[in-house]
Write a structure and sequence with these properties.
Layout: H1 5-17, H2 21-33, H3 41-57, H4 61-74, H5 79-91, H6 95-111, H7 117-154, H8 161-176, E1 199-201, E2 207-209, H9 210-219, E3 237-238, H10 240-252
Antiparallel strand pairs: 1-2, 1-3
């Protein structure tokens, strides 16, 4: 008897629940083969993103990304696809791509009132931190190359006293920027995931960038996107503690605004 897309999807889902991920992938493939012109694009997208989850759990991250590309081709708003895209890139140490995908997942969650923004935000901060550390490693390696060149230049007998002084000044400047602290999580907004300029706190204790939480309240309704509690603009209060923390960090590390 020929099985339907629906029955094959149920078999695939059950195999997934049982931890039989390879078997689940086979069922999802069969389900995709039964699709026709009446099959909804969102359903096709879900089948691909479910396959991606299986590949991710099998630690086959490249294959997961291939399935995710197909999922997003059929539905650009598939939050599961964006989430696992971020996760897969993270595992492959492709941190820039991971950050971009998780930001997209967070934006979709906020736009669709999905109560998963905090989970996505936590993973996004991990990816942002890993990206920062990876970029720092490359930056320090580049600085070391420059230092090595300047060290050699210092021994050059053809340098004038003025040139030697310039070399020393450059070396001193490089030493000042050899290490940079990781920006604290508290500096980042929970909607934009960017460093805040005007942090405000809600009655439930969540801190947001004023501009972004006001946009949320005007566009999505009067509720806190994290707690879903009723929230009105007049309840927002400037978070002076976080504001001071941001000002101090930026003053000591002006480079952070260029990241």
């Amino acid at each position: 008897m020929t099985q339907t897309l629906s029955s094959l999807r149920k078999l695939a889902n059950q195999a997934y629940k049982d931890g039989k991920f390879t078997e689940s992938i086979a069922f999802y493939d069969q389900a995709l083969q039964t699709k026709n012109s009446t099959t909804k694009q969102t359903e096709i997208s879900t089948l691909y993103s479910n396959k991606a989850m299986c590949y991710f759990l099998l630690k086959k991250f490249e294959q997961a990304l291939e399935e995710i590309a197909q999922a997003l081709k059929h539905n650009k708003l598939n939050i599961k696809a964006w989430f696992y895209k971020g996760q897969s890139h993270y595992e492959l140490k492709q941190f820039k791509n991971s950050v971009e995908a998780l930001k997209r997942a967070g934006k979709i969650a906020e736009e669709q009132n999905l109560n998963v923004a905090d989970d996505i935000g936590c993973l996004l901060r991990q990816a942002q931190r890993a990206k920062f550390e990876s970029d720092e490693k490359k930056r320090i390696e580049n600085l070391q190359c420059i230092k090595n060149y300047l060290t050699i230049a210092e021994t050059c007998t053809s340098l004038t006293p003025d040139d030697k002084e310039k070399v020393k000044t450059l070396m001193s400047s490089i030493k000042r920027y050899e290490s940079r602290p990781t920006p604290p999580d508290a500096l980042y907004g929970k909607i934009s995931f960017e460093i805040m300029k005007d942090p405000v706190i809600t009655p439930s204790g969540a801190t947001y960038e004023r501009k972004h939480i006001l946009e949320h309240l005007g566009r999505r309704g009067h509720f806190d996107p994290l707690t879903l509690q009723t929230l009105k603009p007049e309840q927002l209060i400037t978070n002076f503690g976080v504001h001071e923390m941001i000002d101090d960090f930026v003053e000591q590390n002006p480079w952070v605004l260029d990241e």
